[in-house]
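Troubleshooting: if your tokenizer reports a length mismatch, compare your output against this known-good record of 110 residues.
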Amino acid sequence: MRMHICPVCERSDRITRLRAHWSALPPQGRAAAPHLARPSLNDERWAGPVGLLTVGCALLVSEAWLGYVGVAGGGVWLVSLRDKAAQAARRRAEWRRKLFCHRCEHVFLP
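Known-good structure output:
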């Protein structure tokens, strides 16, 4: 591992990866430091927008004007869920890169 220096205490002797520090914490330590926790995955339900899109397509095939509304609404809903999932993935990737200084308990990116 490359030598990293803490931006707060300017020391490099007690720097570890945040994920290693988090996994080594006992349950009591994890409860006391929720700000160090790994970001949660977005638990979005994909069935709603996919169902709306399917119903919209069925109505569109039967030449009902509500089909356009269903397809547009389902599409917009799916795009917003996709963006939320991408943001959650970026937050988790950033968390995996973070380092932790045991001396001053500072979390920072290399």
